[in-house]
Amino acid sequence: MRTDQQSPGPGAAGSPIAPVVDELELRMSSEADHEWIRRLRHEVYARELGQHVPNAAGLLTDDLDGSNVYIVAVRRGEPAGFISVTPPWAGRYSIDRHLRRDEHPVLGEDGLFEIRILTVDPSLRGEMIGKLLMYATLRWVAAHGGRSIVALGRVELLPMYLALGLASTGTAVRSGAVDFQLLTGDVAELTGRTLRRYGPLLRDLARTVRWRLEVPFLPEDESCAHGGASVEALGRGFENLDANGDVVPADVLDAWFPPAPAAVAALARGQDWIARTSPPARADGLVEEIARRRGLPENAVAVGAGSSDLIFRAFRGWLDASSRVLLIDPTYGEYAHVVERVIGCRADRFPLRRAEGWRIDPERLARVLRKRYDLVVIVNPNNPTGVHLDTSRLRKVLESAPGGTRFWIDETYAGYVGAGQTLERHAAEAGNIVVCTSLSKMYALSGLRAAYLTASPSIVAELRRWTPPWSVSLPAQIAAVSALRDPEYYASRWAQTAALRAELAAALAEADENVRVSESVANFVLLTLPRGGLTAPRLVERCRRRGVFLRDLSPMSPAFEGRTVRIAVRDAAANARVAAAVAEALRGPHGMA
Prior knowledge:
The protein has helices at 19-22, 34-48, 129-143, 158-163, 187-208, 229-232, 261-269, 271-276, 284-294, 307-318, 333-343, 362-368, 391-400, 424-429, 457-465, 474-484, 487-511, 536-544, 572-586, and strands spanning 24-28, 69-75, 78-86, 112-120, 148-154, 167-175, 178-186, 210-211, 248-249, 301-304, 324-329, 346-351, 375-379, 406-410, 433-438, 451-454, 516-519, 524-528, 548-549, 551-552, 564-568. The protein is an alpha/beta fold. An eight-stranded mixed sheet has the order 6-7-5-4-3-2-1-8, sandwiched between helices. The chain has a seven-stranded mixed sheet with strand order 10-16-15-14-13-11-12, sandwiched between helices. Strands 17-18-21-20 form a four-stranded antiparallel sheet, with helices on one face.
């Protein structure tokens, strides 16, 4: 990170905050900031440090200015400093001028962001501004799916960078009269370290710094981020449940339709008895119904309280810190959270490409599998991209993989694709394939939590040993059994979902000719905003003010470039509200919420 100053670290918890911070505003740069940024760059990097040759214009630019993102600090309306970020979608980094990526593995990391030219006005150095700019950058990178950062740090400031959690690779770079070292850091680890060390001070700063970035000043918690802000709008204590019709929960992929009538009736008949009665400990009746409806042996089925329950139990039993896992990117975020943050093992990414329609290329995947992984996770149809890989083609890839590789196939949304697009029966016979199927989304049971996995009897027996009794509630067991007995009802509802999805996509496309709307094969659409315009977080915030909740996909993967939202299909009236809110939001100025 090329910087002009060595700011002392924040003081201990409870220490007074410098007056200059009380009047400090941190925000994304605007067009009006570009001239002073270039002038300050010239003053520091040309005149003060001698990294560049001074010029008559007194402005310093480079060929990455069009791709860089600038975060600025302003005090009393006057420039205080800035920092630059080069995101991976820029296609190149400043470091590429000095180092070859094939010679430095850290430059080939997935989700890599480069932090550059941290600069503070000379009259304001030593006032914590530099540290706050670095913290703001870390928060912005995390909010855009960044997993690692890289920077060139001045050698004389190396102790400061190391104290912040960055690591030196030992690679030296000289630019002009300035010596640098190549630094790197894991975004999640840096965030955790910062919160542990400076948490109390940051909470104080959150009340004083004028934070204008699109990401919250403090991370909410260390769990995986999900949708669900629409439910939280009804009150943390559920005090506003009657207002559920006032919001459009298009941020979560819950069904827009009710459960099968028989399921609703079964729950309604004995509410008080169901609430006070313990469920069957092993959910044998539910297992039997699943096996009968799916044509599976009962000893090849294990149930859980939603797919997350199964994921946490299975992965923690199979993996440890030495394991190697391959994840599709982008995909459902719970997998990366469990693998990297809960278990702490290595996860490589198999990147999907927007230009290829987010399609999984079977041939490319087969080549990557030669690296031999302990576990490979494939969500099919994929969430959040909404693309499906034909199961016959996927099966060929699995059968050609090296021995010892276990596959976890998430088929949560497979019912939307059609009959025959499941690997459940194959998984029951294979010794290395597990298929996870949620009953929550497809069967309108999200509030009850029910799911199952299909695998060989030996794998299922192992998972059952790790399962506590009564793990699936009585309401969930009753409703799931009733739902599975009415396939005609759900087939009709899934067909209606496809029609509503097409109508929603068409209405959104009419909202603005510059947006791109992509239908999934499931119960959602993707809306991608043009580069340089309104960002996904801004769009989500504007729609939320109108009672319409959308899902910003930026934190899930840098592949979305901070400009894609996922919109769940609702009923016709709610879809009309979504389209109207999006159209109105797109008409506003880009730089304001």
